[in-house]
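Anyone else keep sequences and structure tokens together like this?

Example one:
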Amino acid sequence: MLDPIGLFEVAATIPELGSPVLVQALDGFVDAGSATRLARDHLLSVLDAEVIVTFDVDQLYDYRARRPEMLFMSDHWESYKAPQLAIHAVRDAAGVYFLLLTGPEPDSQWERFAAAVAVLVERLGVRMLVGLNAIPMGVPHTRPGGVIAHANSAELIAGYTNWVGTVLVPSSAGHMLEFRLGAGGLDSLGFAANVPHYLANLEYPAAAITLVECLARAGHLDLPMDALQVAAQLSRADIDKQVEASEEVAAVVHALERQYDEIAAGRGSRLVADGASLPSAEELGAEFERYLSQQPGPDDTPPI
């Protein structure tokens, strides 16, 4: 492995952080309902934040797989949107600092990246890692938002319902980071918001609220959610309107409600049984495309 210290640069001056929580909210893995992005962007927009660590993206990013955007204006290139992988120092509403890791999931050098973050954890006095994620599940939007909680110590996620048994899942750099840092002794946990599969390709602010609430609880942080709550209310009204306009979609939602209620009452099995395999990001994307291709056209009832 190449020296992990050569993978990042720390700002010349950083604030007094205390013992912050490090929040992992990388792009690139499954993000149903764009919940992780919505939660991350919300925190950066409503709280004071500054970049204190930048990573050498050229070492980690596959430009041909995820081509950055450039703006062409008439006869010249106006701008280039360079990818940035960074750690922000963010202050919650009470003035308590936490760290937010944002940017594209590394395409390569995962172990070196994890080792680099471990160095930063030590250097910045990080006391806990919290990962944010969102996955499509067979749940209805009319029931309380669920979340799959995981940690290297059961005490860190006490009180959360176990919705999933033993399963095989495609890995991500964020999950591997949680695994490596947890094995090294750092309190490491993560939350995957359960997004109704029929809404997974749309923005779903309700799931972002779930993630922010879980983060606030785990890290003892004061995180405002007014803007997200307004967005969730508007989104819910639009979803309900479209469900009412389609008997087929309404039937799916009612079936999911019955399943959810049976599981919540202890009469049903888990949402994902032991021994199952969750689909990869590519498989989920293909399934979404298949679903959308079967929906009515622009002259018919608009799909959800």
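And example two:
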Amino acid sequence: MLRIIHTADLHLGISFSNISNSPSFENIRFQDFFKNFEYIKDYAIKNKADLFIIAGDIFHNPRPSIEAFNAFSKIIGDLIKNGIQVVVTLGNHDSSKTREALSYLKSYVNVGLERFILFDVASKKIIALHNGEKVKIIGLPYPHFQSAYSYQEFVSFFENKLQELKSNDTADYMIVVGHIFVEGGKIGSEQRIASLRDHPIPKRLFKDVDVACLGHLHTPQELDSNILYSGSIERIDFGEENEEKSFLDIILGSKLEFKRIPLKLRPMKTFYLNFENASINEISDKIKALKLEEDSIVRLRIEVSKTTNISASYIDKIIRENFKLAGYKIEITRKKVEETRLAAKASSFNEYLENYLRIKYKKSDEWIRNVIEEANRIIEEVRIKK
């Protein structure tokens, strides 16, 4: 029996300057990501995992910060000290498109770190377990080169390479670890996959492997009984605010069994507010009345009229004085003033004016009646003076 802990898309060291300019927020989110990674590591040690698989995008940048690299190294060290085999494949964020740029993760291989396997090129590795069983691992890092191929050319190339890696070896288990986009995968809120124009890899290519542990898609999902995406370990942006995150605890024996272990996430929520006809004081009161959870991450999407005299700095001040948030983003859009069309049929000036006021201002009948009376008074006053 083989026990695997599978995670992916850690994106350690990712910047959140698009959400908050506060330096403390960057550190808060840095810690959020590492706390979840630490939790996965502790779970693996406690449950005596044989393999700890990270299917790509360990760091958000090919050149991670020293802080991120050191923190990651400590976690890897804890796993190895506890006799757990660590298996890593490179994601699109872990390496540059240029062949000359090596991943920082190669340094672990260069120093001969035991129980650490890195797949920086498509290749295979056979390892022996403590019970004598053999495991064949096929590593498939993100194929940057795919953009140079047509879909059919790429699929043909990929299939031939995978078939080559599958053949000529005897093992008790065969596992694929890849950072790839398999057909049928749900991109969900993370639209960057679409922007990469990845070629979807046919599911049929994995039907004869015991399990495919995959990364690249942030939404946790199973494409077939043996094709598993662990999903990312934290919410990257507001596009993922409604997604729950988890990692996989996999058992390989006479059959494949797995369960998802949920991760603790900081609340992240968008509030949609329409202040088209509100005064400054009304806007202030309505924002103060919002139920914003303490230490959460919030986005305020506010719509106002073109003439509303309000700024993001004004709302920022209200937020800072009334709430304790981890981070927040304010987006103000001004609604375009549409041309006011009067009713085609109106027999008098009063009817034209009444139609205009109802469409333009949407006020009460009493307000409209008072405006018409005042307009008539002014007109009469001007007529008498003439």
